[in-house]
Amino acid sequence: MTSAVTDSPPVTDARRLRVLICCDAAIERNGVGSYYGDLIEQISDSVEAIELIAPEHGPKPLVSFPLPGDRTQRAALPAGWRMARVFDELEPHVVIIATPGPYGMTGARLARRRGIPFIYGFHTHFEALSELYWGRLMTAVATRYLESRNRKLFERAALTLAHSDSMVALARKLGARRAELAATLLPGRFDRSPEPKSGPVERIIFVGRLAAEKRIDRLLDAAARRPGLTFGFAGQGPLTETVAAAARDYENIRHLGWVRRESIPDLLAEHDALVLPSDVESFGTVALEAIACARPALVSTHCGIGEWPQLDPVLYRFDPDEPDAMVHALDALIELPEEARRARAEQGVAAYAAIRDEGRRAWLETLVEVARAA
Fold first, then answer.
1. I need a labelling partner for 278 at 20 to 30 A (CA). Which of 75, 211, 217, 296 fits?
2. CA dihedral of 45, 49, 50, 54, whole degrees rounded to 10
3. What is the mean predicted confidence (pLDDT) over 245-267?
4. pLDDT tier at 311 (50, 70, 90 boundaries)?
5. Of 30, 29, 213, 35, whose CA–CA distance to 129 is shortest?
6. 182-207 per-position pLDDT tens digit
């Protein structure tokens, strides 16, 4: 395995830029993976090359296995020499480390050995998630491990990017030399002129992993208390059977299963509003997707997207720490006059367009800046 330091001239133009992303998450089945898939789609025409190394993309892993606590997802151990071959063939100017797992840590090590600067994407507070899935002893071990990995990446990254002010603050607290807000991009299929939904709000949709941190129990409770509304659940996860059982017991609950990403715009168009009731959600991309599709997005205040000032006028929020807050917020959304909902939806589409354009520009400028400073 070579460890030669690259001696490429500094990049001053994004069109000459070569970028490599190292990610432990599946592109289609994980929010972090989808984020980088969207980034590749949106900027690939503006750079010389952008490639991805992930469990189902790039070199074959040494081994893959079910993710502890969620057997609907898989983890993998990369072959370091195979990853090194990609580094040496591509000769990237910048590496993006998307996760603190085996792929991310191997990518960071290979980048450092070659003198390539890397950006660390701090997308998930894994320590908080571990408490939901593992016992006390396993949580303590996992937390210590993840904190040590995060600190190492924070210390060595040229830049750390996170999706909310609270995650940026956490990164700085844990030792990030430089931490900033990350821009968010969606795939081109959301770049259209959607029509706000007319008529009453009757069909509610949840899209995401059916998992403890998503607090789908709040939606199931709402379905039992609001039989006049229809609740759809699109996704897979540890709580798949819980949702399937509820769908058998209640006529107004629909279990849609896993939905391919390209089908999400049509799925949102078929419903009147999206609800994201998560307790742990660093951003909440699906809420931005709903806004881009001119659909109301009702989100927990624990979702990072709620911290984005550009979306203040268009998001619907509830405080999950208040009893029955989600049901009350849903009732308020339903009672809102159609004209007001339509105006808010149109404002949301315009806000998304501005976020998309600024996000694309910000990512390209950031990549060039990091490459130039190497």
1. 75
2. 140
3. 95
4. very high
5. 213
6. 999 999 899 888 999 999 999 999 99
Domains of the chain in start order, with CATH, are: 14-182 (3.40.50.2000), 189-354 (3.40.50.2000)
CB atoms within 10 A of CB 64: 13
CA nearest neighbour of 36 among 166, 147, 183: 183
Tokens linked to 91: 């000769």
Report which residue type is found at 22: C
Interatomic CA distance for residues 233 and 27, integer angstroms: 20
Q: Are 238 and 72 in contact (CB under 8 A)?
A: yes
pLDDT at 145 over 90: no
Per DSSP, what are the bridge partners of residue 159?
119
Residue 5 pLDDT? 45
Q: How many CB atoms lie within 10 A of CB 140?
A: 13
Report the distance separating Cα 22 and Cα 108, nearest Å. 8
Q: What integer pLDDT is reported at residue 81 of this predicted model?
A: 96
CA-based end-to-end distance of the chain: 22
The total number of residues written for the chain in this structure:
374
pLDDT tens digits for range 150-166? 899 999 999 999 999 98
Q: Shortest CA distance to 73 belongs to which of 27, 7, 107?
A: 27
Alpha helices in the chain (DSSP H): 31-43, 80-90, 102-113, 126-133, 136-156, 165-173, 216-225, 240-249, 264-269, 285-292, 325-335, 338-372
